[in-house]
Specification:
Mannose-Binding Protein A, Chain A; 327 residues; alpha+beta; 20 strands; 18% helix
């Protein structure tokens, strides 16, 4: 009877979950990895998404996960406060997780929950309490990745037990200078401009996207791709020409990578480059968190097309422009 049971069990494949090398299991279906780089929330979220499919900044669904995240990498990150995946930007002032997990458990420091747009969530290292700050500030961070499922047949009837380690293919970042020598872009859907040493990608999807989803779409296109930053009138006009070459719609709005630091009403580029040029229209109203380019708007003051206007990040635009910069 025992032999029959063993034979039956040996025919059933087992499914088990493991984490790639360098990752730690949270015993909750996710693997975690800490990063010592000081990045803005958006850069940190992009790093998580670029490294492995399904990657996001860590979300917290219960007190157990909050404790796991706070303890796994405390020493490695030098006991620093860290970004979590919470933000008020996705839902217009309501808190949500970047991985779309329900925002049901909270651990805010008393009196610190703030529902203003443009805030992101930090976990404090010493008591694991949360507090919100502007997303454009820099912190270390922890990414979460779904555990890798592997199927195996048990070896009940084997007389010699051979140990084997499942092999997991983990994407690695390759230097763009090696993979894409300038002026070559990823493919012929990207356009290269020698003056800026960048590749640009214009997209006008059937379904309009908000600013965050446009940024995610750039990240999905290629490692290190992000919404475009603009540093001169010449570059701005090139992007106007690029947009017009794809669409003649008079109402076209194009997301760019400019973000407001809400508390101070100033702007910064999502890629961290200097904010040394602006084309925000003098006719723009009260500042809003995100910015789009209007390729068809002629501004009498600046004597040119391609003025910028601020919008709620949750609004949708018809198009966006991504960039890849060679260094």
């Amino acid at each position: 009877m025992i032999l029959a049971i063993l034979i039956y069990l040996s025919s059933i494949p087992w499914v088990f979950c493991i984490c790639p090398s360098g990752f730690s299991s949270g015993s909750n279906g996710f693997c975690y990895k800490g990063y010592n780089d000081q990045n803005t929330w958006f850069q940190a979220e992009a790093t998580c998404a670029q490294n492995i499919d399904g990657g996001h900044l860590a979300s917290v669904e219960n007190v157990f996960t909050n404790a796991v995240i706070g303890s796994l990498f405390a020493a490695q990150l030098n006991y620093s406060d860290i970004w979590l995946g919470g933000t008020t930007d996705y839902l217009g002032g309501n808190w949500s997780w970047s991985d779309s997990t329900a925002f049901s458990y909270t651990n805010f420091e008393p009196g610190r929950q703030n529902n203003s747009i443009g805030l992101c969530l930090v976990q404090r290292y010493n008591d694991l309490r949360w507090y919100p700050i502007e997303c454009i500030q820099s912190r270390k961070f922890i990414c979460e990745y779904p555990e890798v499922q592997k199927t195996s047949s048990p070896e009940f009837l084997s007389t010699t037990k051979t140990q084997s380690t499942p092999q997991i293919s983990v994407p690695t970042k390759t230097s763009l200078s090696t993979l894409l020598p300038p002026p070559n872009c990823p493919n012929n859907t990207w356009l290269y401009y020698n003056e800026t040493n960048k590749c640009y990608f214009f997209d006008m999807p059937t379904k309009k996207l908000n600013w965050h989803k446009s940024l995610a779409a750039c990240n999905d296109l290629y490692h290190n791709a992000t919404l475009v930053s603009i540093h001169s009138k010449d570059e701005n006009l090139k992007l106007v020409d690029l947009a017009k070459s794809f669409s003649n719609e008079s109402s076209l709005q194009v997301w760019i990578g400019l973000r407001q630091v809400t508390e101070f009403d100033v702007y910064a580029w999502i890629d961290g480059t200097p904010y040394n040029f602006t084309n925000i229209s003098p006719g723009d109203g009260d500042p809003a968190p995100c910015v789009h380019l209007d390729p068809n708007y002629y501004d009498q003051d600046t004597k040119g097309y391609g003025s910028w206007f601020s919008n709620s990040c949750g609004d949708v635009a018809k198009a966006y422009i991504c960039e890849l910069e060679f260094v």
